[in-house]
Amino acid sequence: MISKKMEKAINEQINKEMFSAYLYLAMATKADMMVFKGTAQWFRVQAKEEWGHAMKFYKYLLVQGATVELQALAKPAVTWNSILEMYVAALKHEKFITASINGLVAQATAEKDNASMIMLQWFVTEQVEEEANATEIIAQLKLVGGSAGGVFMIDHHLGKREAK
After folding, report:
1. Distance of CA 33 to the CA centre of its chain
2. Are 158 and 137 in contact (CB under 8 A)?
3. Contacts of 48 (CB under 8 A, 6+ apart)
4. pLDDT at 163 (0 to 100)
5. Domains in the chain, start-ordered, CATH in brackets?
6. What are the percentages of helix, strand and coil residues in the chain, rounded to 5?
7. End-to-end CA distance of the chain
8. Are 82 and 35 in contact (CB under 8 A)?
9. pLDDT higher than 90, residue 146
10. Average pLDDT, the chain
């Protein structure tokens, strides 16, 4: 059984993960409107992945006999003017999520909550991958600069991403 403090923190993380899904769906929508179909596909897959992360936390609370308390989702700001701006915003958001996961790990460690520490290790590894993916795409987009052909090729490649 987990502490009430950990239960509350994981409920807050569920909200952050669901917001992540909502944010990436907003990015997919914007990319579709900008006719970057590959980027839209990439962000739709990302949204599904983030929903899956929320569900891992959700199921963990239930297995622990804790209460799941769903919270309202904030509306994502849709201010991106390019796909580069979207990926920069995605990386910033992933760093925010990484910090939040690290906070949960610190809390679980302080409480000597071994079950939560073990569960959270998956998320620690996942966040390394999330940040690396966004960083790589940003580097590629910066490399091609404003080249329409280069951006088109990257967008085409991003569209090949499939859900796990």
Report:
1. 22
2. yes
3. 21, 163
4. 81
5. 4-158 (1.20.1260.10)
6. 75, 0, 25
7. 31
8. no
9. no
10. 96
